[in-house]
Amino acid sequence: MKKYQKILFYVICAFLFLLSCFRWPEMGTDTQSYIEIFKRGYHTDIGFSFLAAIVSFFTSNYTIFFICTSILIYLPIFGSIRRYSYKPLITLIFFFLYYYFTSINILRQFISIAIIYYWAIPFAINRERNKFFIVVVIAGLFHFTAILFAPVYYLVNKELSIKTYFLIWIGSVTLLVIDPMVYLSNISSVMEFIASFDANQKVNVYYSNIERIFIEKSYNRLILFNFFLLFFYYRYRKHFEKGGTFLMFFNIYFIGIVFRNVFHKFLALPRIAYYFEFALIFLLANEFKKKNNFWVKAFLIIISLLLAYLRFIVNNENGIFSLWRGSVEES
Length: 331
Known about the structure:
The protein is mainly α. The chain has one domain. 69% of the residues lie in helices and 0% in strands. It has 16 helices and no strands. The termini are far apart.
C-alpha cells in the first residue's frame, strides 16, 4: 500500500473498532441480549461464557465487555485483510459493506470467524493438520457451528473439475427452488441429533419448532452471491494455482453459496454460511489487482453499495439504523 492508503486503512480500522466498542444499547437486534449475557456471566457456548464471566468479575460496565469482544473480532479480521489481500484498503471497504454491521450483531459467530481466518487458515495452507483442527475447536467454543469449517482443510489446494463444481451448484439451486418440506424429514433428523446434546438451547428451540422455521426472505443477496460465484469461476479458472490463495478462497466461498442455496428458506441456518461466504471480500478485492478493467471495478463497487443500502437502510437488517430511522420518522 502507498503511504496515504496505509494511513486511510488504519483510520477506517480505528473508526470501525471504536464504533463497535462504544455502541449504544439499542444499536442492533442482539445488543441487549449480549448485555444480559454479560450481566449474568453465562452462556451455553463455553468460550463466550468464560469471556463474559471474566469481564463481569472485574467490572459491571458492558462497554468494557464490548471492547473485549471487539478486540477478539476486529484485530484478527483486520490482520487477515493485511495478510491475504493484495488490496487491503479495497478489501476493508468490502468488509464494511457486506459484513461489518452483521459482525456487530452476531458477536459469538464473528469471534469464531475471526479466529478461523487469522489462525486456522494459515495452518491449512501450510498443511499443519493438528494445529488447524485445534484452532477450529477453539473457535467452536465461542459458537459451536464453527466446527463445520473443519472439512475446509481438505479443500484448500484442491481444484475440482468444472463438471463437479457445476453439478454441486446446480443441485443446490434445485433445492433452493423446490418446497423445503420435501426434504424436511432429513433436516429434522440432523437437528434431532444435534438437539440431543443439551449444550445449546437455540438448537433445541429450532428443533421443537421445526415445522415453523421456514420464513420468507429476500432473494437480492442470494442472486448476487450466486452471480459472483459464476463470475469468479469464469474469470479465474485458468489462473487457479495449486496452493494459491485465490483457489482456497474460491473453494471456501463455493461451500458457502451451496450451503446458503440449500438452507436459504430456513430460520437461522443460513447464518452458518457466513464462515464460508466471508471469503467473498478477498475474492472481490482480487479484481482490483488488474489494470484496465475500470467498468468491472465500478460495477462491483456500485452493486455492493446498492446491496448494502437495501440491506441495512431500506430493510434495516440487523437493526443497526433503528434509532436513526426512528428519529427521522418522528421529525
